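@channel sequence for tomorrow's demo:
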Amino acid sequence: MQDIIITGANVWCDGKFITADVSIHDRKVANVGEPMLQTFKGTIIDGSGKYLVPGLVDMHVHFREPGYSYKETIRTGSQAGAAGGFTTVCTMPNLNPAPDDVDNLKRQLDIIRLDACIDVLPYATITKKRMGHELVDYRMLAPWVAGFSDDGTGVQDEEVMRRAMEGIAPTGKILAAHCEVESLLNGGYIHDGDYCRANGHRGICSESEWGEVERDIRLAEETGCRLHVCHISTKESVALIRDAKERGVKVTCETGPHYLTFCDEDLQEEGRYKMNPPIRSREDRDALRQGIIDGTIDVIATDHAPHSASEKSKGLEKSAMGVVGLETAFAAVYTTMVEPGLISLERLIELMAVNPRKILGLPGADGINQGDKADLTLIDPGLSRTVDPSLFRSMGRATPYDGLPLRAWPVLTISNGEIKC
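C-alpha cells (generated this afternoon):
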C-alpha cells in the first residue's frame, strides 16, 4: 500500500485548524506537523488553501440493499458517500428482509463486507419487520449496529416504545426515532402550508412530527434511553429538543441540508421536492437554522433516499418520498449556512464530522492525530460547481439542488488509508 502525504493544508486538530503536513502510512495517520517532503516517498497531494478534516459521517442513509437494489446498492451508495467526502455512513433498516435478527443482519453485513468502499454501519430495527409491535433482541444485535431504528415509520404504540427504550438503554446504543403520528397524516404528502392550499394538494401538519417528538422525549426521560431524533423539520421540534436538553434528557437530533436551504415557497410540481418529512414553512426553516446556530441541533444528516427515475417522475402528489443528498451535502450546507456568515466552518465540521462520531462512539472526534485510522476529507473552499445529477455516483438523481451553484466541495476522500475519491 502506497504512502500518502497531504502538504500545507489547514488541518483540524483539537477543535481548530493548524497549517501542517499530514502523512499516512499503513492505513494510519503517521505524522501531523512540519514539512516532510525531503524524505517522503509516495503519493503527494497539495493541500494548500484547503481544509483537511476527519472524514465526514452521515448518520442517516438508505442504500436499499438487500431488497430494493433497483434503487441503490451498497456499492453505488458507498461510492456516492465517498464522492461527497463521507468515510462512514449509517444505513437505515427499511429493507427486505429487515435487519431484525442476527441472520437477516448478517445478510446485509456480508454485502457490506464485499461491496462497500467506505465504512457502512447498519441500524437494526426497533421492532420485528418494522411493524411496531414485537420487539427485537437488542442485546444480541447491539455489537453489530450503529443503533436501533424503524425509520420510514414511527412506532405508534406508546407502550411498545417505552419497552423498546427500556430494552435499548442497557446496550448504550441510540434509538434513532422517526417521529410521525400516522393518525394525523390524512393522506398528506407536502407541508400543510400556503403552497399546499394554493395548489390543491393535501398537507402534512407539523404536529404529526412534533407530537411524537414530544412523546419520545418524555419516554427517554423516564427510561434513560439515548434518544436520537431523526430529520427534524418543524420549529416545535426544535423548541421541544432545546427544552429537553436544558433538563438533562439524553437526546440528540439531526436535520437535513434541504430543510436548511428551502421552504415551501420554493416548491415546484416535481418529485425532486418531495420527501418525508416535507420541506416546511419559512418560519420552520429559520427555526432550524437557529437550532444549528445555538447548538440545539447536533448533526446534519442527508436522509439520502434514492428511488428510480420512474418513481420520482410523477409530480408532488404521486412521486415516491425521498431525495438523494450524499454528494451535495457539504457544499449545500456550506453555501446555505457558512458563506452567509450564519455559522463558522468549524461549526459545520462539528455537525458533519465531530458530533456524529461522539454520538456513535467512533474514533476521530478530537481531530486528526498521529496513530489514528486514516479517514480524512479534503475540502476546497474556493471550488464552485453547479449541481448536475447526471454526474452522481448514486443511482438516484432526484435532488432539489439540481442546477444550483454550490461552493466548497470535497476534493479528496481517504477511507482506511486509501484514496476513494
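heads up for whoever presents: The chain has twelve helices and 18 strands.
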